Amino acid sequence: MNRTDNLLTKEKRPMDHTKAPLYEALCKYEKANHTSLHVPGHKDGRVFDLEAQRHFSEILKIDATCSNGIDDLHQPKDSIKEAQDLAANAFGADQTFFLVGGSTIGNLGIALTLCKPGDKVLVQRNMHKSVFNGLLLAGAQPVYISPAIESETKAAMVSDLHYIEEALKEDPDIKGVWVTNPNYYGMSQDLKRISEACRQAGVPLVVDEAHGAHFGQAEEVPPSALSMGANLVIQSTHKMLTALHMSSMLHVKGDLVDLERLERVLGMIQSTSPSYLLLGSLDLARRYLVVHGRNQMRDTVKRLEKRRVELSSELQSLTIWAGSPEVQYRDPLKWIIASKNEGVSGYQLLDLFHEEGAVAEISDPRNIVFLFSLNENEADIEKVVRAITAVDQRIQIEPAHSRKKAEVSMFDEEGTLSAPELSLQDAFNRPRRKVKLDDAAGLLCGETVLPYPPGIPLLNPGEKITERHIETIKQLHEMGAYFQSPSDLTMDTLYVIQ
């Protein structure tokens, strides 16, 4: 019996998901009430800001460190190992790693595991910035593939299989395929054929599934990337499940990944003083999902879908996206809301809904997205419905919120392959100079131009700046888009490579 067979047999073995071994170990630590003569300096909460004690006092008692009875993230043998095994079983992985730096750490770790300097990776162009940062650190050579664009929302999605197959045939030196699925909007594509194409090419399929940790956990939501054949999957357990912020999981399946190298890399980039609060919350998020969350999610989806259909027929000024033939799967826990008057931007809707007490997850030139949890009751849903109804009425009464429709172009035509003029690493290390945005066409970008969220770079270092890029930056800035860490907040200038 080979290694894969052993893992599959292990995966099928019943496991007790009512247990939360890491959290239970932290509770034992608290109950022992030993005198802390080790880090952290707050000494289990004895020394802490008095005003904040009412919020932090209980949780500080289990803000432990690796000590007798508390397992080590970098060499798990006891409670962390058991917690990760339970997570692998729950999510259908061969092996799962807990991450305390968000999916960013997972993306960095994957890049450093799969890529050696100069290696080529086929990368969906609408990836999170952490993917590009990982490729930069690894010295890899990204081959960008432009995404598909959903016709109504203009949201970027996975390119059609045809384009990915052609790219793999065109360049046999590609070492892996890296896509985002679902996108920030909950749109998910069927990855089975892509994973099969990768398998035939002998390269791993890597999926940034940050917004799909709940996928595959009930029939009412889309299937998971692991179930569709992905080899490496990153999930932000804190986004759609119940872990604390910065808590994520990295799942591995199949024999195309060097696990020993992955473990070494994670040992390099994860803190040697990881937060056991975050690690414990991952353990609890898995338990909650399996014991309660799956059934709660089924009921929540039924309530949301019923109310979405009813509300859609009542709205005069707004729409709630219901899916399209271009998208195989729609996440029912996300509502994509837009104005029927396309001159009303998503940034304006974000402000209008904030005034009504409803804070959206994301806004873009057209849309905002509401993100619901696994367990939403009728009263919670009705609060959102009231806010939608109020904004729907306000837009009818206040036409001054409208402005001229602007088509914003973020990416080249679907399937277009491109490589930066300079590698990410070369561009990072080259000298830079500031130029006026209007004078930048034809020059190589020297910084990351990042409308945020969702954290997808419009320009990466080393890419040639075009007139389209310049126009898009101006449009987004005028519409009120937020750019993360630009060298010039006014976006009038930017760095280029000398």
What does this structure look like?
It comes from Siminovitchia sediminis. Its cofactor is pyridoxal 5'-phosphate. GO terms for molecular function: transaminase activity. The protein has 3 domains: 213 residues, 3-Layer(aba) Sandwich (Aspartate Aminotransferase, domain 2), CATH 3.40.640; 104 residues, Aspartate Aminotransferase, domain 1 (Alpha-Beta Complex); 78 residues, Ornithine Decarboxylase, Chain A, domain 4. The protein has 498 residues and is α+β, with helices and mostly antiparallel strands. It is 38% helix and 14% strand. It is globular. It is built from 15 helices and 18 strands. The N terminus is likely disordered. Helix 6 links the parallel strand 2 and strand 3.
Quick take:
With 498 residues, the chain is α+β, with helices and mostly antiparallel strands. Helix content is 38%, strand content 14%. The protein has three domains: 3-15 and 73-272, Aspartate Aminotransferase, domain 2; 298-401, Aspartate Aminotransferase, domain 1 (Alpha-Beta Complex), CATH 3.90.1150; 420-497, Orn/Lys/Arg decarboxylase, C-terminal domain (Ornithine Decarboxylase, Chain A, domain 4).
